[in-house]
């Protein structure tokens, strides 16, 4: 039987045909791998596991983006500075600024309000500046003794001066309010000089009281 033209039947396997088949299968495998499907070339029993892994990876990337991390590097993205900001030191302008030096009295007043020291400071101001508050005439004849529950106890040097101070009590309260604030002193309790005592020392016995001196 005559062979086709160009074909030689030597009884050996056709190496060119075998090479073509192997190359063809390789080309087919590449086409399946590059077909665009993420599961191309993956066995059916492992495709579901591949899908689960892919979804887990996508969720991890989404979580990283929400946390501000650069996906794939594991580091936080650098914070963006607002437009117009500069790292150079800024100086305050001509207007008032919280960074400007503050008066000492204002700082002390703010500290007293925060710590609740205002009543003690008002009382100290009242007793320490009594002369400037009420004037030299009243200060020369009456002195504050104690401040209890917004009532100022004042002692006059004589009964006459005690009576006179009761007449001008409203004016004295107005001067005190202007100096230490409203509500610190609401009323005055003015008294005359104290009667002398004949008691000597810390220990004493009561007297016998009235007695008959007519024999």
Rg, nearest Å? 52 Å
Strand order of the largest sheet: 1-2-3
Taken in chain order, the helices and strands follow as HHHHHHEEHHE
CATH topology of the domain at 116-191: GMP Synthetase, Chain A, domain 3
Q: Helical percent range?
A: 40-55%
Molecular structure report:
The chain has a three-stranded mixed sheet. The chain contains eight helices and three strands; from the N terminus they run ααααααββααβ. The protein has a domain at 116-191: 2-Layer Sandwich (GMP Synthetase, Chain A, domain 3), CATH 3.30.300.20. Strand 1 and strand 2 form a beta hairpin. It has 215 residues and is mainly α. The model is unreliable at 1-10 and 16-36 (pLDDT under 50). The protein starts with 14 loop residues before the first helix and ends in a 24-residue tail after the last strand. The longest helix is centred in the N-terminal third of the chain and has 23 residues, at 44-66.
Give the key terms.
215 residues; mainly alpha; GMP Synthetase, Chain A, domain 3; 3-stranded mixed β-sheet; 8 helices; 45% helix; elongated; disordered N terminus
Q: What's this, in brief?
A:
The chain is mainly alpha-helical and 215 residues long.
How is the topology of this model organized?
Elements: H1 15-33, H2 44-66, H3 104-115, H4 118-128, H5 130-134, H6 136-141, E1 142-148, E2 151-156, H7 159-167, H8 169-180, E3 187-191
Parallel strand pairs: 2-3
Antiparallel strand pairs: 1-2
């Amino acid at each position: 039987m005559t062979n086709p033209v160009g074909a030689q039947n030597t009884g050996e396997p056709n190496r060119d045909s075998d090479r073509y088949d192997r190359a063809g299968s390789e080309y087919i495998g590449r086409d399946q791998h590059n077909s665009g499907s993420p599961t191309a070339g993956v066995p059916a029993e492992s495709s579901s596991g591949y899908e689960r892994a892919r979804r887990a990876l996508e969720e991890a990337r989404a979580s990283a983006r929400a946390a501000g991390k650069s996906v794939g590097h594991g580091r936080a993205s650098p914070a963006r500075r607002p437009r117009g900001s500069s790292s150079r030191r800024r100086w305050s302008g001509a207007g008032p600024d919280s960074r400007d030096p503050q008066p000492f009295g204002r700082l002390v007043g703010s500290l007293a309000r925060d710590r609740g020291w205002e009543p003690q400071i008002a009382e100290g101001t009242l007793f320490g500046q009594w002369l400037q508050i009420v004037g030299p005439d009243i200060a020369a004849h009456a002195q504050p003794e104690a401040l209890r529950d917004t009532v100022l106890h004042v002692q006059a040097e004589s009964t006459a001066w005690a009576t006179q101070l009761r007449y001008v009590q409203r004016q004295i309260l107005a001067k005190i309010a202007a100096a230490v604030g409203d509500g610190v002193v609401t009323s005055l309790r003015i008294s005359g000089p104290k009667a002398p005592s004949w008691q000597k020392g810390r220990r004493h016995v009561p007297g016998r009281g009235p007695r008959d001196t007519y024999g």
